[in-house]
Amino acid sequence: MPPLFDWRFAADPYPAYAWLREHAPVRRTRLPSGVEAWLVTRYADARQALADPRLSKNPHHHGEQSAHGKGKVGIPGERSANLMTHLLNIDPPDHTRLRRLVSKAFTPRRVAAFAPRVRELADGLIDSFAARGEADLIHEYAFPLPIYAICEMLGVPREDQEDFHTWAGMMLHQPGSPRGGVGRAVKRMRGYLAELIHRKRAELAREQGADDLISGLIHASDHGEHLTENEAAAMAFILLFAGFETTVNLIGNGTYALLRHPGQRAVLQRAVAEGDEGLLAGAVEELLRYDGPVEMATWRFATRELTLGGQLVREGEPVLVVLAAADRDPAKFAEPDALDLTRRDNQHLGYGHGIHYCLGAPLARLEGQTALATLLHRLPDLRLAAAPDELRWRGGLIMRGLRSLPVEFTA
Ligand code: HEM
Fold first, then answer.
1. 387 C-alpha vs ligand 1 centroid, how far in Å?
2. Does residue 395 line the site of ligand 1, with CB under 6 A?
3. 118 lines ligand 1 (CB under 6 A)
4. How far is the CA of 297 from the centre of ligand 1 (A)?
């Protein structure tokens, strides 16, 4: 079997996933952290597992937890920052209640109204490097765009957005960011958000509230129920956390895939020039399928014994659904290893499936489509400025993306 989890694997995990899909589609595997988990790699099993109510999101169901698994299966720092009650850690009925409340504030209409601002942000970032004729597209484009976008949407004042840029840089170990680990950045973000929510609640009480997402979260009610201040802070945080590195990777992996497939890139470039939004939307879905930002869905734990792809999974055992493997399953997709921006009926699992299906998908689509279209429009002769084997990948367990993407173009 090709090696799992070494540095070559991060650069191209797909041969190892093809082997697993074929020979051991549900396989118990020791992860780099030492935790053992079932890896699920076939499309049909993955889809079943994502929606199976016997697989809980609550880490309390992790059998190893009290022995030695503590702290190894969540967001670093989330325990100490009191962030455990976010959507990706809870099951119904709590999940149903919180998701219903957040959906009242984070609406497709709010996202659609934000479109012109995302375009301005993308244009502004390109303006900052266009005259140079070269850039690192991760550091200067894919990384800042989602962080400024979500900050503005949440209602973080402009003067404080640089702090988020810094904390996000610490989380991704961006060049030039202060050292100090993810845990510290998480705690600072959490502290800031708690304070901001407190301030916005007071403004709303004085009827001076703004029309931003945090005010929407405070205001949202369902049958007379509201989010508590702690729930609102955990929610704002998970919107930032879930919507940040994912979108960085969508823009980074997507641009890289286009630069490696000139024929497909030409198809998209033409569509952008002609304003063919249908093709642009389909292209971004295919880029998500082909080399998506989320390699594995977040943790699940068996609450009782179940059979998955013919394997017995015991109570307390963790399950990781490998979206990147499922989305290249030949049993589901014709020519799965080919990038085909005009692929039809593309039911990829890049945003998950079932009750935890990505809440931010409308915003992710808006950002992905805007970022790629603006880039191809503004820098039509964009080309890679490094050999593919010189590029380094950030191979965390859940996410997969480039550390940097050097490019050249006519200034
Ligand atoms: C959940 C992917 C962007 C917020 C998820 C899940 C996936 C995913 C696979 C399900 C995880 C699981 O079942 O374990 C993506 C991708 C994105 C993206 C590929 C970008 C291309 C965003 C954005 C936001 C966001 C921009 C918000 C601003 C969330 C939230 C959840 C979630 C809150 C948890 C939903 C729940 O548990 O009910 N996302 N996401 N995501 N995503 Fe995204």
1. 31
2. no
3. no
4. 9
Give 75-114 pLDDT, tens digit per residue: 666 766 666 778 999 999 999 999 999 999 999 999 999 9
Atom of ligand 1 nearest to the CA of 87: 37
Atom of ligand 1 nearest to the CA of 102: 33
Q: 102 CA distance to ligand 1 centroid (A)?
A: 13
What is the 3-class SS of the chain, one letter each residue? CCCCCCHHHHHCCHHHHHHHHHHCCEEEEECCCCCEEEEECCHHHHHHHHCCCCEECCHHHCCCHHHHHCCCCCCCCCCCCCCCCCHHHCCCCHHHHHHHHHHHHCCHHHHHHCHHHHHHHHHHHHHHHHHHCEEEHHHHHHCHHHHHHHHHHHCCCHHHHHHHHHHHHHHHCCCCCCCCHHHHHHHHHHHHHHHHHHHHHHHHHCCCCCCCHHHHHHHCCECCECCCHHHHHHHHHHHHHHHHHHHHHHHHHHHHHHHHCHHHHHHHHHHHHHCCHHHHHHHHHHHHHHHCCECCCCCEEECCCEEECCEEECCCCEEEECHHHHCCCCCCCCCCCCCCCCCCCCCCCCCCCHHHCCCCHHHHHHHHHHHHHHHHHHCCCCEECCCHHHCCEECCCCECEECCCEEECCC
pTM over 0.90: yes
- Interface predicted TM-score (ipTM) of this complex, two decimals: 0.99
Name the closest-CA residue to atom 38, ligand 1. Answer: 356
pLDDT score, position 9: 85
Pocket test for ligand 1, best of 358, 397, 400 (most atoms within 8 A of CB): 358
Q: How do residues 381-403 score in pLDDT, each as one tens digit?
A: 999 999 999 999 987 788 999 99
When pLDDT is averaged across residues 247-264 and rounded to a whole number, the result is 98
